[in-house]
Design brief:
single chain, 109 residues, mainly alpha, globular
Length: 109
């Protein structure tokens, strides 16, 4: 996935993960969703990491650390529910990494 400049692709991706439990995808769909979240998140993580700490918000700084931890740690537990929870956690962190283009252009993330 290549996020577009206005962030709508990321918003849609996050929205796919943050649906009610009754609307979650099957196991293969969750695995694809996790892969897409990680791909988009790695690109955003790299972008936000280039901003000096003094120009980042506390929220963005925390999201950077959380992203690295949760991507490395993977799902906690076994089975479909653990993978679904992992996808939802990644989506919440990705939402915090994704800022509007106007915020990006101001140099403060």
């Amino acid at each position: 996935m290549n996020p577009n400049s206005d962030g709508t692709d990321i918003q849609r991706l996050v929205g796919r993960a943050l649906v009610p439990y009754s609307e979650r995808p099957d196991a293969a769909g969750v695995a694809r969703l996790v892969d897409e979240l990680i791909t988009a998140g790695e690109a955003l993580h790299a972008e936000v990491s280039t901003v000096t700490a003094g120009r980042r918000t506390e929220r963005a700084g925390s999201a950077l650390a959380e992203w690295a931890y949760f991507v490395d740690a993977g799902p906690t537990g076994r089975g479909d529910h653990a993978n679904w929870n992992h996808a939802r956690t990644l989506a919440r962190i990705l939402r915090n990494l994704a800022v509007s283009p106007a915020d990006r252009s101001s140099g403060v993330l």
